[in-house]
Amino acid sequence: MLVDCAASPFLGHRGRAVMTPETSHEDVLGFQFVGKGIETVREGSRSLALKAGDVVVWDGHQPTDVEIVEAFHKRTLLFPRDRVIAVCPRLADLSALPPIEDNGPARLLVRYMNALAIEQPKLEGAAGVAAANAALELLRAAVEPCVPTSRTAARETMRADIRRYVRTHLQDAELGPASIARAYSISVRALHALFEDVDASVAGLVRTERLARCLEDLERPNGGSVTDIAFRWGFCDAAHFSRVFKRAYGVTPSDVRHQALEGR
Asked: What is the C-alpha to C-alpha distance for residues 110 and 104, in angstroms, rounded to an integer?
């Protein structure tokens, strides 16, 4: 979600009362850019004085005291916490979010956020998803240099990197544990061990990502035939594709394709 906020001077407090399991909208991390004014913030154990041009990442789980010192405008991108942790797992080990340095990715994310404010209302479907994913990757690039590491977080960081590798190589019919292990100069056994403490295996990850891309194309009227789409995303057997697709989504690829072509 992209949020603009303009305010006159005031004092505010956001406490534990709004942070219940029912308020899932609080389960977010925010990337904030200050366009105008001065804001002082006390969030958990850290205190910040923010002025025009500053950026900060804040935590929706932390009680916060705010003072707007002079007329203020900020623009904030709100990210689901689980999505941020998935691409920047070392954040999960921290008791407080790190300050964001004035680095290239942070400045680029600010420019991208300003462009989104103009273009986002016109984005639909896959275009909106792609825009959100691009923002998430820019946030990762801005935050990663500021976060200390640990062995557990390092493993999850490598898994996140492998997930990105898989998404960019889905059209390779040979994509699988062996080719991924070669790309990272590790053994297949070490690759499987890296994923042994998460829900999805390496092969399952490849299959899930391919099916998701196939679903997107099946729902596009100009996506092509079922067989074209299956081959495009690395499936070598149309019958096998149909079986695994129905197992995952409960409908056949042909059903989805027919609905798209009928405009439903």
From this structure: 10
Task: Dump pLDDT digits (tens) for 201-259.
Answer: 899 999 999 999 999 999 988 888 999 999 999 998 889 999 999 999 999 999 999 88
**Ranges in the chain annotated CATH 2.60.120.10:** 2-148
CA distance 244 to 164: 22
pTM: 0.60
Which top CATH class is 2-148? mainly beta
**Domain 152-261 CATH assignment equals 1.10.10.60:** yes
Q: Tell me the C-alpha distance between 1 and 24, whole Å.
A: 13
Q: Length of the chain, please?
A: 264
Distance CA 79, CA 75 (A): 13
Token pair 């896959």 in the structure block, residue: 126
Q: What is the arithmetic mean of pLDDT over 176-203?
A: 89
